[in-house]
């Protein structure tokens, strides 16, 4: 969603657009033989959980989506499918 507004600056006037989009924070928790989960990205899962706990009582100016992905490693790449959702 975009919100348009006009503003004056020293060279005249200009129309601008603010992008009002949700913030996506993600972590994946899958693993593969050569990349143990905690070394790959699973360490980010507890960080994301802590972010959720810290934001729980906050009034946010925009939507925040917390996404936990699996099947991200080859040959699955399901997190790529999630980006189009």
Summarize the structure in words.
By secondary structure, the chain is α+β, with helices and mostly antiparallel strands. The protein has one domain. The protein has helices at 37-40, 44-55, 78-82, and strands spanning 2-9, 12-19, 23-28, 64-69. Strands 1-2 form a two-stranded antiparallel sheet. Strand 1 (2-9) and strand 2 form a beta hairpin. The longest helix has 12 residues, at 44-55. The model has no long low-confidence stretch (mean pLDDT 75).
Highlighted features:
85 residues; alpha+beta; elongated; two-stranded parallel sheet; 33% strand; two-stranded antiparallel sheet; 4 strands
Q: Mind sketching the topology for me?
A:
Blueprint: E1 2-9, E2 12-19, E3 23-28, H1 37-40, H2 44-55, E4 64-69, H3 78-82
């Amino acid at each position: 969603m975009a919100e348009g507004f006009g503003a004056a600056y020293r060279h005249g006037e200009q129309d601008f657009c603010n992008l009002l989009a949700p913030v996506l924070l993600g972590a994946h928790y899958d693993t593969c033989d050569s990349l143990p989960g905690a070394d790959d990205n699973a360490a980010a899962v507890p960080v994301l959980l802590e972010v959720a706990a810290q934001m729980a009582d906050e009034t946010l100016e925009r939507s925040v989506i917390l996404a936990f992905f699996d099947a991200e490693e080859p040959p699955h790449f399901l997190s790529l499918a999630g980006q189009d959702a």
